[in-house]
Amino acid sequence: MTDSNKKIPVKKGFKGFFARFPNTNLPMSLSHGDQSKFSKKNKPLSPEMALDFLYQEGDETYDEFTEFIPCFRLPDTKKFHAVVYWQGDMLKYYFHLAIFDITGEIQEKTQLAGTKVEGDMLDVIVANIKSSWEIELLSGKVSVQETNLSKATLLPTSEVSIDQSSGKVTIKPKK
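User: That's the sequence. What structure does it adopt?
Assistant: Structure tokens below.
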């Protein structure tokens, strides 16, 4: 067998983990409340699975109240795997993009969209994911008293791009 025909070993359990993320069609948007449509279709990840596949050195530790919902995988990745999951913690709720190499080792994580309570204000971030895998992030603040988050004034803050051959994530601030 030549080197190019050798089977590359995949991290134990990764195939089962990756299977929890359904295929999706792009474009799509992610904003506050969208986690409910994913949690209706997808069972939460166990704390052990989240620790095995999503935790990176330097991350905040997870507690028994942290919830992880698999959302979807980006389509047509060939040399890497890309998934989006929702993480709910105490007073902060975010969608994240995770990039894995073909063996199932996590390479990068990027926060995409969500909300965080800061005093009497909510930080709100919305992500618009294009078919080209470019992701526009818009952010703003709204009072925690406001029940309609669409009243937040959202301004473009950055653009996230994913190199389609390597999976490398680049974040460019909007000026």
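Residues 35-41 form the longest helix (7 residues).
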